[in-house]
Write a structure and sequence with these properties.
single chain, about 210 residues, alpha+beta, Elongation Factor Tu (Ef-tu), domain 3, seven-stranded antiparallel β-sheet, six-stranded antiparallel barrel, 13 strands
Length: about 210
Protein backbone atom coordinates (compact mmCIF):
# COMPACT_ATOMS: atom_id res chain seq x y z
CA UNK A 1 0.00 0.00 0.00
CA UNK A 2 1.03 3.60 -0.62
CA UNK A 3 -0.18 7.07 0.31
CA UNK A 4 0.26 9.00 -2.95
CA UNK A 5 2.77 11.33 -1.28
CA UNK A 6 5.80 11.32 -3.58
CA UNK A 7 9.07 10.89 -1.69
CA UNK A 8 11.45 11.58 -4.57
CA UNK A 9 11.84 11.48 -8.30
CA UNK A 10 14.18 9.09 -10.07
CA UNK A 11 15.34 8.32 -13.56
CA UNK A 12 14.76 5.22 -15.68
CA UNK A 13 18.32 4.64 -16.86
CA UNK A 14 18.24 1.28 -18.59
CA UNK A 15 15.50 -0.70 -20.32
CA UNK A 16 16.11 -4.35 -21.23
CA UNK A 17 13.55 -6.31 -23.22
CA UNK A 18 12.65 -9.69 -21.71
CA UNK A 19 10.31 -11.23 -24.27
CA UNK A 20 7.16 -9.11 -24.06
CA UNK A 21 8.18 -7.83 -20.61
CA UNK A 22 10.86 -5.29 -19.71
CA UNK A 23 13.45 -4.97 -16.98
CA UNK A 24 14.15 -1.46 -15.73
CA UNK A 25 17.09 0.00 -13.85
CA UNK A 26 16.02 3.13 -11.98
CA UNK A 27 18.41 5.70 -10.54
CA UNK A 28 16.90 6.54 -7.15
CA UNK A 29 19.63 8.04 -4.97
CA UNK A 30 17.27 10.85 -3.89
CA UNK A 31 14.81 8.28 -2.54
CA UNK A 32 17.31 6.75 -0.13
CA UNK A 33 17.70 3.01 -0.59
CA UNK A 34 19.42 2.11 2.70
CA UNK A 35 16.20 0.72 4.19
CA UNK A 36 15.04 -1.02 0.99
CA UNK A 37 15.40 -4.78 0.64
CA UNK A 38 14.98 -7.23 -2.21
CA UNK A 39 11.30 -8.01 -2.65
CA UNK A 40 10.12 -4.64 -1.33
CA UNK A 41 7.51 -2.69 -3.26
CA UNK A 42 8.15 0.76 -4.73
CA UNK A 43 5.56 2.75 -6.65
CA UNK A 44 6.96 4.08 -9.91
CA UNK A 45 4.65 6.68 -11.49
CA UNK A 46 1.87 5.09 -9.48
CA UNK A 47 2.64 1.49 -10.48
CA UNK A 48 3.54 -0.94 -7.68
CA UNK A 49 6.73 -2.78 -8.68
CA UNK A 50 8.92 -5.30 -6.84
CA UNK A 51 12.61 -4.64 -6.24
CA UNK A 52 14.53 -7.48 -7.94
CA UNK A 53 18.07 -6.08 -7.66
CA UNK A 54 19.53 -3.32 -5.54
CA UNK A 55 22.60 -1.11 -5.27
CA UNK A 56 23.36 2.08 -3.34
CA UNK A 57 21.92 4.30 -6.06
CA UNK A 58 19.74 2.07 -8.27
CA UNK A 59 17.06 -0.55 -8.04
CA UNK A 60 15.85 -2.91 -10.75
CA UNK A 61 12.34 -4.14 -11.44
CA UNK A 62 10.62 -6.54 -13.84
CA UNK A 63 7.56 -5.11 -15.57
CA UNK A 64 5.13 -7.60 -17.10
CA UNK A 65 3.37 -7.25 -20.44
CA UNK A 66 0.04 -6.85 -18.61
CA UNK A 67 1.38 -3.92 -16.58
CA UNK A 68 2.79 -2.30 -19.71
CA UNK A 69 -0.59 -2.68 -21.43
CA UNK A 70 -2.54 -0.81 -18.74
CA UNK A 71 -0.04 1.92 -17.82
CA UNK A 72 2.27 4.50 -19.36
CA UNK A 73 5.77 5.75 -18.68
CA UNK A 74 7.52 2.46 -17.98
CA UNK A 75 8.89 1.72 -21.43
CA UNK A 76 11.19 4.70 -21.98
CA UNK A 77 13.99 6.60 -20.27
CA UNK A 78 12.45 9.42 -18.29
CA UNK A 79 12.00 10.96 -14.85
CA UNK A 80 9.51 9.11 -12.64
CA UNK A 81 7.74 9.65 -9.32
CA UNK A 82 8.82 7.30 -6.52
CA UNK A 83 7.27 6.21 -3.23
CA UNK A 84 8.25 3.39 -0.89
CA UNK A 85 5.52 1.11 0.42
CA UNK A 86 3.55 2.33 3.42
CA UNK A 87 4.46 1.02 6.89
CA UNK A 88 1.74 0.58 9.51
CA UNK A 89 3.47 3.18 11.68
CA UNK A 90 3.51 5.83 8.92
CA UNK A 91 1.23 8.83 8.69
CA UNK A 92 -1.36 8.63 5.94
CA UNK A 93 -0.81 12.03 4.38
CA UNK A 94 -2.64 11.33 1.11
CA UNK A 95 -5.08 8.44 0.71
CA UNK A 96 -4.79 4.67 0.53
CA UNK A 97 -3.25 3.76 -2.84
CA UNK A 98 -2.65 0.20 -4.04
CA UNK A 99 -0.39 0.92 -7.00
CA UNK A 100 -2.76 -0.87 -9.38
CA UNK A 101 -3.48 1.39 -12.34
CA UNK A 102 -7.13 1.52 -13.44
CA UNK A 103 -6.59 3.39 -16.67
CA UNK A 104 -4.60 5.94 -18.61
CA UNK A 105 -5.79 9.55 -18.79
CA UNK A 106 -4.84 12.42 -21.09
CA UNK A 107 -4.05 15.98 -20.02
CA UNK A 108 -6.48 18.38 -21.71
CA UNK A 109 -5.53 21.55 -19.87
CA UNK A 110 -2.61 22.62 -17.70
CA UNK A 111 -2.30 26.28 -16.94
CA UNK A 112 -1.12 28.75 -14.35
CA UNK A 113 -4.09 30.15 -12.46
CA UNK A 114 -2.38 33.53 -12.43
CA UNK A 115 -2.44 33.43 -16.27
CA UNK A 116 1.31 33.93 -16.44
CA UNK A 117 3.67 32.33 -18.92
CA UNK A 118 3.13 28.56 -19.08
CA UNK A 119 6.88 28.01 -19.34
CA UNK A 120 7.39 29.40 -15.83
CA UNK A 121 6.33 26.63 -13.45
CA UNK A 122 8.11 28.02 -10.41
CA UNK A 123 6.24 31.29 -9.91
CA UNK A 124 4.55 30.30 -6.66
CA UNK A 125 1.03 30.10 -8.07
CA UNK A 126 -1.30 27.11 -8.20
CA UNK A 127 -1.92 25.42 -11.52
CA UNK A 128 -5.12 23.96 -12.93
CA UNK A 129 -4.75 20.41 -14.24
CA UNK A 130 -7.55 18.87 -16.31
CA UNK A 131 -7.45 15.22 -17.36
CA UNK A 132 -9.77 13.18 -19.56
CA UNK A 133 -10.32 9.78 -17.96
CA UNK A 134 -11.40 6.63 -19.82
CA UNK A 135 -15.21 6.58 -19.81
CA UNK A 136 -15.23 3.19 -18.06
CA UNK A 137 -13.64 4.62 -14.91
CA UNK A 138 -14.97 8.18 -14.89
CA UNK A 139 -18.01 7.00 -12.92
CA UNK A 140 -15.68 6.33 -9.98
CA UNK A 141 -14.35 9.91 -9.93
CA UNK A 142 -16.28 12.27 -7.65
CA UNK A 143 -16.08 15.94 -6.74
CA UNK A 144 -13.94 16.36 -3.58
CA UNK A 145 -12.97 12.69 -3.87
CA UNK A 146 -9.44 11.33 -4.08
CA UNK A 147 -7.63 10.28 -7.26
CA UNK A 148 -4.07 9.11 -7.86
CA UNK A 149 -2.34 10.60 -10.92
CA UNK A 150 1.10 9.16 -11.78
CA UNK A 151 1.38 8.14 -8.13
CA UNK A 152 0.34 11.53 -6.71
CA UNK A 153 -2.65 11.75 -4.36
CA UNK A 154 -4.93 14.61 -5.45
CA UNK A 155 -8.39 15.99 -4.68
CA UNK A 156 -10.88 16.30 -7.52
CA UNK A 157 -12.40 19.78 -7.98
CA UNK A 158 -14.86 19.06 -10.78
CA UNK A 159 -15.86 16.17 -13.04
CA UNK A 160 -17.90 16.56 -16.25
CA UNK A 161 -18.03 14.51 -19.47
CA UNK A 162 -15.12 12.32 -18.32
CA UNK A 163 -12.87 15.37 -17.70
CA UNK A 164 -11.88 16.10 -14.12
CA UNK A 165 -9.91 19.05 -12.76
CA UNK A 166 -7.55 19.55 -9.82
CA UNK A 167 -5.44 22.34 -8.37
CA UNK A 168 -1.70 21.67 -8.23
CA UNK A 169 0.19 23.57 -5.55
CA UNK A 170 3.75 24.84 -6.23
CA UNK A 171 5.36 22.24 -3.93
CA UNK A 172 3.75 19.35 -5.82
CA UNK A 173 4.68 20.87 -9.16
CA UNK A 174 8.32 21.36 -8.20
CA UNK A 175 8.86 17.98 -6.51
CA UNK A 176 7.12 15.62 -8.94
CA UNK A 177 7.10 14.90 -12.65
CA UNK A 178 4.09 17.19 -13.03
CA UNK A 179 6.55 19.92 -14.00
CA UNK A 180 7.03 18.06 -17.29
CA UNK A 181 3.32 17.67 -18.13
CA UNK A 182 1.67 19.45 -21.04
CA UNK A 183 -1.56 19.15 -23.01
CA UNK A 184 -1.61 15.70 -24.60
CA UNK A 185 0.54 14.04 -21.94
CA UNK A 186 -0.68 10.63 -20.78
CA UNK A 187 -0.83 9.75 -17.09
CA UNK A 188 -1.57 6.72 -14.93
CA UNK A 189 -4.85 6.88 -12.99
CA UNK A 190 -5.93 4.94 -9.91
CA UNK A 191 -9.39 5.52 -8.49
CA UNK A 192 -10.18 5.69 -4.78
CA UNK A 193 -10.55 2.16 -3.41
CA UNK A 194 -13.76 3.06 -1.60
CA UNK A 195 -15.49 3.44 -4.98
CA UNK A 196 -14.64 -0.16 -5.88
CA UNK A 197 -16.26 -1.52 -2.75
CA UNK A 198 -19.34 0.68 -3.00
CA UNK A 199 -19.95 -0.58 -6.54
CA UNK A 200 -19.42 -4.21 -5.52
CA UNK A 201 -21.78 -3.86 -2.56
CA UNK A 202 -24.45 -2.41 -4.87
CA UNK A 203 -23.94 -5.26 -7.33
CA UNK A 204 -24.17 -7.82 -4.53
CA UNK A 205 -27.39 -6.28 -3.25
CA UNK A 206 -28.88 -6.45 -6.74
CA UNK A 207 -27.72 -10.06 -7.18
CA UNK A 208 -29.25 -11.01 -3.83
CA UNK A 209 -32.56 -9.36 -4.76
CA UNK A 210 -32.75 -11.30 -8.02
CA UNK A 211 -31.84 -14.56 -6.30
CA UNK A 212 -34.56 -14.16 -3.65
Amino acid sequence: MFTGIIQATGQIDTIIRAGEDVKLSIQASALGLDDVQLGDSIAVNGVCLTVAHLSKTHFEVHVSKETLNVSVGLNRQQTVNLEKALRLSDRLGGHLVSGHVDGVGEVTRFEDLSNQNLSNKNNGECWLLAIRAPHAISKYIAKKGSICVDGVSLTVNTIENDVFTMNIIPHTLQHTTFQYLSVGSQVNLEIDQIARYVERMAEWAQESTHAA
